[in-house]
Amino acid sequence: GHPPLSSIPLVQGSPHEVSPQDKTLPYNAIPNTGRSAWFNLFRLWRRNQFQQMHRVMERNFQQLGPIYRENLGTHSSVNILLPQDVAQLFQAEGVFPRRMRIEPWAIHRDIRNHKCGVFLLNGEEWRSDRLVLNKEVLNPIGVKKFLPFLDEVSRDFAGLLRQRINRNTRAALTIDLYADLFRFTLEASGYVLYGQRLGLLEENPNAESLHFIRAVETMIKTTLPLLYLPTKLLLLTETQTWKEHLKAWDTIFEQADKCFQTIYQEFCLGQERRYSGIMAELLLKSELPLDSIKANVIELMAGGVDTTAMPLLFTLFELARNPSVQKDLREEIFKAEKENPKDLSEMLNALPLLKGAMKETLRLYPVGITFQRYPTKDVTLHNYHIPAGTLVQVGLYPMGRSPQVFQDPLSYDPGRWLRREDTNFKALAFGFGSRQCIGRRLAESEIMLFLIHILKNFQVDTGSKEDVKTVFGFILMPEKPPLLTFRPISHIPQSRGQH
């Protein structure tokens, strides 16, 4: 186990609370966690605290107040907690919002001579790619086209669970769903992006696709220890971690290249046209070069597996230990299906509580524990002067659990998002503004359709009512996945429509 956080000397200085009438204080007056960037990094490494960075950050806010500075290896940042400060940051992000560059990923692209996608790009190049992608991935018209693909895979997953239950004499299934959710999210993402089913929900899934999942897991796992090291050091060293990272990305690109070649060949042969996924649409419209299309689809594919699987797992766990919420959601789903039997898009819009449940999960368990911006002009945050170009990080995990921001923050209450409370800049798991997560609508639709088919067909229970212990491995994940029990619902209203 990890040493208790209380035993780790993390911060220097004391909280500096300021009142609104005080004059703006200089940047150097912001409380900090220690001036030596490399000593701070060494301390995290020595205490094995990389996996607890979300809790380290939470404690720093508790001790230093809602804004503090941190120097960590090659990174120097200002970390903020309060929604009103995030709103000020948004005002200063400029026309080309810039996020922190993930150097290990970018170096892989440079070494292998691959193009970068919008996740890694900045400036005009980012904007031109992004405007094209928005039409297929974020725009409601584009989203509506791929909803049936996600619905099909979600139905199939529910069918797979039912088959397993039918083989069990107890008419129930108790399972660690961790690996199955990875298979589901890769199957769904692959279908939407490439218009191809990968066969991951079959009894004996394709070994190549399972190899891809392992590559994505390795890529995520190896990113964090490489993140704060200098670029030159990564290029000069041949550490096992760096070798694994490069190999994982190579596997991800190889898998994507095979799908790309298949689609491109069919495209060149002039096959009869119907909607067959995002990549085919991008090829058809020819608004991006081929290498840009490939780069962006790869980022969507690699980024959409873990980052959708984890919210699904945490949501199922919270619904299992909050049966009244689960019951309310099920009733809302049946009602929405009855009123919108033929239109998936309309049905999803008629599920405010389910959307609230998704927001509530991402509040308590954000996939990324922070997101970043570099303000393009000087900005005042919590009465401190922040110079243009400073890396500012919003602490999503600490914000979601802060009593300064949320009433009764540790309770799972989807209804809080439906009441007349001020929720501005509080649901930030996908970021904000023009640089919000490009896969946001894909992830939200995938999560909602999955939950619809699970809750229509099964009662979800858990024997454990304790909080799930989480670790940070570049994304937030459970230290040990919870066991969940699925029982078929004996009576399902007959009036539900077919899509």
TrEMBL record:
Residues 1-23 are annotated as: Disordered. The keyword Transport does not apply. GO terms for cellular component: mitochondrial inner membrane. PROSITE patterns: CYTOCHROME_P450. It is found in: Mitochondrion membrane. Its EC number is 1.14.15.4. Its cofactor is heme. Belongs to the cytochrome P450 family. This is steroid 11beta-monooxygenase.
